[in-house]
Design goal:
By secondary structure, the protein is α/β, with parallel strands linked by helices. It has 17 helices and twelve strands. The strands form three sheets. It has a seven-stranded mixed beta sheet with strand order 1-7-6-5-4-2-3, sandwiched between helices. Strands 10-12-11 form a three-stranded antiparallel beta sheet, covered by helices on one side. Strand 11 and strand 12 form a beta hairpin.
Amino acid sequence: MNKNNQPLVFELSKSGRTGYSLPEMDINAQALEEIIPEAYIRKEAADLPEMAELDIMRHYTALSKRNHGVDSGFYPLGSCTMKYNPKINESVARYNGFAHIHPLQDPATVQGALELMYDLQQSLIEITGMDQVTLQPAAGAHGEWTGLMMIRAYHENNGDHKRTKVIVPDSAHGTNPASATIAGFETITVKSNEHGMVDLEDLKRVVGEDTAALMLTNPNTLGLFEQQIIEMAEIVHQAGGKLYYDGANLNAVLSKARPGDMGFDVVHLNLHKTFTGPHGGGGPGSGPVGVKEDLMPYLPAPLIVKGESGYELDNDRPYSIGRVKPFFGNFGINVRAYTYIRSMGPDGLRAVTENAVLNANYMMRKLAPYYDLPYDRHCKHEFVLSGRRQKKLGVRTLDIAKRLLDFGYHPPTTYFPLNVEECMMIEPTETESKETLDGFIDTMIQIAKEAEETPDIILEAPHTTVIKRLDETQAARKPILRYTKEI
């Protein structure tokens, strides 16, 4: 039994029981040895549990019920846009013509798939205000790196080798400086002002002849719209740099404003966020990148184009940064995003933004009397609260997050952005009902009252979960990554 009195798989094992039936190998042992190096051929049977198929199914079904997902409960992760994934997307992604093709097939035999990707590129071009899009990158951070590599290639091809620095706000996503570093740049921080937006005077101070790009998103990670974005673009462009848009927050401006119209030169999108591909637990993701015309020559190859005889893969790109992912991106997520965009249409996408912003402002105003509100102004799709008031009572944001688990809610993003003390970033998305929002609001109010009256309940939380509070420092430094019978 484990620490929570739950049976382990090996304790359910009974000698002689089998939960699978495999066909006999159609290759003999000698041929197998010629294919697989001897060092990789198992000499003894694996020490696996012996269980009937029914027991295996019940075991894994029970484990799945311990997971939290958007289909099972509210998922208010700020900056992550964990909204509902319409099941029509899943149905279309499983069409034989999409699910059973192979990326190495002759393009003439997969014209439907190529047409879908081409049309998706065109839709994303229109939505972002860019001039061309690649679907290759596998996720948001991968898209960031891809965009930065194109910016780097652009400067170097122009003989501008001194541009080695990328500017990021102090409220930026952590992937921004990480992607810049991996792309070979040095990162420079620009401060936020008292209103939670980029300080223009500080931007003027740090921008210069060595500036390759400024990375930011609009609205920013505080959920606030950067009202001086046009001025920022002018400052960066006059210095010869490029403006990069982190698309994590596109859900806040979808069909209302376009990055390309704000002055951005590069944008990555998160199809698994804004465009409802399922994500979490490591994937699958998709992070297409759009660029303005002067960066188009550097897009990854191949690019899907429409030729005289149909849709083609264009590899004739001498200035391309090269392929950034095997094959042509996460095709299944592209299908889901395409289905979502076509299902919603322009009016539907506009309603997404309107309802996301409405939900966020509703929640923010309901919770403002009980938690500190660092920036008391109209927010976009998400908002930031601070637990400073509760910290004075001995209850930290981490404790509040643990207590939320007792009520069946996934906690919001905590301790990010870093420039807000005891930060809680909440994004309700447009897909949640008022009843769900009210239930979460009532729970947050109850926890605020518990912090004043019975703080020990919060400090000892969670009480109802299978796993209680972990030693997070120990878990990070000495993680248990594989099964051992001694546990």
